[in-house]
């Protein structure tokens, strides 16, 4: 097998992203026949059929979808090489690559970046949202400057700093009868339409464990993968939900009600450093982020004491 050609992978990636040979040609500023030739050469080199062709349309095969994941890793690695070269050339750390749980991306992260740039205005940021399992794996391979996710207590091999601890809250439509209560208990969820988190969510597992222990069975459910999308479903009147406090940061609380939830379910996560060690920028980011999380937790808790 010949060495893979960078231009072939550029063409393959462009077709996968754009959905057609013609659109890929426009993206790469080459002709459609040139794209087709590059993709056919890649198929020949790999011994795989990557696209099913029918008239002017193409449909990726299962092999193409699997290969695309690996090709994306290749381009991400190339980007890191460029970043590292620039930093060495400029004798500075000019970009932070951050892997974070998606619930932090809509409120806590933007505020942290805003505060960070008040001290370091020339820093660029790359944000990648993922679950904690993948974040830990990526940090062990030193693919990011810092990660924000859950660290199992048993993982004493991981360098991390725990962030301020919060507890899960209940989200309800504003006009829901339960919104008249000061606190929502697990027993209140019985028979209620419920917005649940994705099956890989630790918080979902903890909520379901509390429901099972209390003999509670919710009503009709809708499942959403990310907790920061929960407020949209709740405000539409589709049900109530239990989520982390970061899911409501920046949300219009005129459209939903939030209440403390019992029994308390702790939401713990950490700033995680790569296996190669802490960078100056990553360590400073963790300190700024810690202050942002502390402030946001206090602000939500303050709403419950009014």
Q: Overview of this structure, please?
A:
With 306 residues, the protein is of the alpha/beta class. The mean pLDDT is 89. The longest helix is centred in the N-terminal third of the chain and has 29 residues, at 62-90. It has 3 domains: 6-70, Arc Repressor Mutant, subunit A (Orthogonal Bundle), CATH 1.10.10.10; 93-164 and 269-303, D-Maltodextrin-Binding Protein, domain 2 (3-Layer(aba) Sandwich), CATH 3.40.190; 166-266, Periplasmic binding protein-like II (D-Maltodextrin-Binding Protein, domain 2), CATH 3.40.190.10. It starts with 5 loop residues before the first helix and ends with a helix. It has 9 helices and 15 strands. The strands form 4 sheets. A 6-stranded mixed β-sheet has the order 9-13-8-12-10-11. A 5-stranded mixed β-sheet has the order 4-3-5-15-6, with helices on both faces. The protein is globular, with a radius of gyration of 23 Å. Helix content is 42%, strand content 20%. Helix 5 (108-119) links the parallel strand 3 (95-100) and strand 4. It comes from Stappia indica. Belongs to the LysR transcriptional regulatory family. Residues 4-61 form the HTH lysR-type domain.
């Amino acid at each position: 097998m010949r060495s893979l050609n960078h231009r072939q992978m550029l063409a393959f990636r462009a077709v996968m992203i754009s959905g057609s040979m013609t659109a890929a040609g426009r993206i790469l500023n080459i002709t459609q026949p040139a794209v087709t030739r590059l993709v056919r050469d890649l198929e020949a080199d790999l011994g795989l059929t990557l696209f099913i062709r029918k008239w002017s349309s193409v449909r990726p095969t299962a092999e193409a979808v699997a290969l695309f994941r690996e090709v994306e890793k290749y381009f991400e690695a190339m980007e890191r090489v460029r970043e590292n070269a620039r930093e060495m050339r400029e004798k500075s750390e000019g970009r932070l690559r951050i892997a974070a749980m998606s619930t932090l991306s809509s409120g806590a992260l933007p505020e942290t970046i805003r505060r960070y740039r008040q001290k370091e205005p020339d820093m660029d940021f790359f944000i990648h949202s993922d679950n904690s399992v993948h974040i830990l794996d990526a940090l062990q391979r030193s693919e990011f400057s810092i990660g924000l996710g859950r660290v199992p207590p048993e993982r004493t091999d991981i360098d991390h700093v725990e962030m301020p601890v919060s507890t899960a809250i209940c989200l309800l439509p504003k006009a829901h009868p339960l919104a008249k209560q000061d606190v929502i208990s697990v027993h209140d969820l019985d028979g209620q339409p419920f917005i649940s988190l994705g099956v890989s969510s630790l918080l979902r597992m903890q909520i379901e464990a509390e429901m099972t222990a209390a003999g509670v069975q919710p009503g009709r459910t809708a499942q959403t993968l990310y907790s920061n999308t929960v407020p949209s479903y709740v405000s539409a009147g589709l049900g109530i939900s239990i989520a982390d406090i970061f899911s409501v940061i920046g949300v219009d609380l005129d459209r939903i009600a939030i209440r403390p939830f019992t029994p308390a379910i702790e939401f713990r996560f950490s700033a995680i450093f790569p296996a190669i060690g802490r960078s100056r920028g990553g360590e400073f980011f963790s300190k700024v982020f810690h202050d942002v999380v502390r402030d946001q937790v206090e602000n939500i808790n303050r709403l419950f004491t009014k």
